[in-house]
Write a structure and sequence with these properties.
The chain contains nine helices and no strands. It is mainly alpha-helical and 273 residues long.
Length: 273
C-alpha cells in the first residue's frame, strides 16, 4: 500500500505543478498588462471555480462508487483503472503537441479577452484550465486508489498534502531558472513516469478482468518471486510504478508489449507531426 501511496504523491505533484504553471502564466501576463487589477480578480475567481468543479467531480465519482453493489465493484474498479490509464496517455500526447505553444496560446487568449474588455473571458479561461487539470487529477487518483487492495483515509490525505507541498517547492525551484531542473527536464522525466504509471494501471485492469473471467488466465511464463517478489517492499514498489509481476501470464506480457509498442508509435507520430 505504501508504494501505491507513492503514486498518489506523484500524481498530485505532477498535476499541481502543471496547474501552477498555467496559473503563473496567466498571472504574470495580467501583472504586466492589467493596470487596474480588475482582471486578476476574475483570474482568481476562475481558479477557485475550477477547483470547486474538480472537487464536485471527485465527490460525484466517490458517491457513485459507494452506491455500486459489492458484486459489481470489481468491474467498476477495472473501468476506473483502464480509463485512468487511457487519460494519462492522452495527456502525455497532448502535452507533446501543445507544450511548446502553451504559453503563447494562453497569452493570445488573454489578449483577445483584454481587447474586448471581457473579464469574464479571463474568468472562463482560468476556470476551464484549472478544472481540466483538476478533473485529470481526480480521475488519475481514483484509478490509482482503485488499484489498491485497501485504502486508508489519513494515509491518502497525507499523500495528497505531501504531493502538493512538493509541487509548491518544485514550482519555486523551476521559477528560479535553475540549470539543473528546467521545465523541459521536468516534463520529460514526469512524462516517462506517467507512461510507466499508465502501464501499471493497464496491467492491474487486465488482472481484474482476468479475475472476472472476461479475459483468459493463461499459464505463468516464469516465476521470479524467489528473488524479487511483487509482494515485497522493493518488488511492490516496482509493481506499483511499472506494472511488474513476479509470475506473469501470457495475457499480461502481451498487454505490456502491445502497450509499449503503441506508445512508441504514438510518440514517433507526434514527433513527426
Amino acid at each position: 500500500m505504501g508504494s501505491q501511496l507513492g503514486n498518489v504523491v506523484f500524481v498530485i505533484w505532477r498535476e499541481s505543478v502543471e496547474a501552477l504553471l498555467i496559473i503563473g502564466i496567466l498571472s504574470a501576463w495580467l501583472r504586466h498588462n492589467d493596470i487596474g487589477g480588475r482582471g486578476r480578480l476574475f483570474l482568481w475567481g476562475g481558479v477557485v471555480t475550477g477547483l470547486l468543479g474538480a472537487v464536485a467531480l471527485g465527490a460525484v465519482i466517490a458517491l457513485f462508487g459507494e452506491s455500486i453493489p459489492d458484486n459489481t465493484q470489481q468491474a467498476y474498479q477495472a473501468v476506473a483503472v483502464l480509463v485512468a490509464a487511457g487519460l494519462i496517455i492522452q495527456m502525455v500526447i497532448w502535452m507533446r503537441k501543445h507544450g511548446r505553444t502553451l504559453k503563447g496560446e494562453l497569452e493570445t487568449a488573454l489578449k483577445d479577452a483584454s481587447a474586448r474588455k471581457s473579464w469574464w473571458g479571463i474568468f472562463a479561461l482560468a476556470a476551464i484550465a484549472v478544472a481540466r487539470e483538476g478533473a485529470e487529477t481526480v480521475v488519475f487518483l481514483f484509478g490509482t486508489l482503485a488499484a489498491m487492495k485497501s485504502t486508508s483515509l489519513p494515509g491518502t490525505l497525507g499523500a495528497v498534502a505531501a504531493g502538493f507541498a512538493l509541487a509548491l517547492l518544485t514550482y519555486y525551484v523551476l521559477q528560479l531558472g535553475s540549470r539543473i531542473l528546467t521545465w523541459r527536464l521536468f516534463f520529460r522525466v514526469t512524462e516517462i513516469m506517467l507512461l510507466l504509471l499508465a502501464a501499471s494501471l493497464l496491467v492491474t485492469g487486465v488482472d481484474i478482468l482476468g479475475d472476472l473471467g472476461i479475459l483468459p488466465v493463461t499459464h505463468r511464463l516464469w516465476d521470479s518471486s524467489a528473488w524479487l517478489p511483487d509482494s515485497g517492499t522493493f518488488g511492490g514498489l516496482l509493481g506499483a510504478l511499472t506494472g511488474y509481476r513476479a509470475r506473469p501470464d501470457t495475457v499480461e506480457i502481451l498487454t505490456y508489449g502491445l502497450y509499449w509498442g503503441a506508445i512508441y508509435w504514438l510518440l514517433l507520430r507526434t514527433r513527426s507531426a
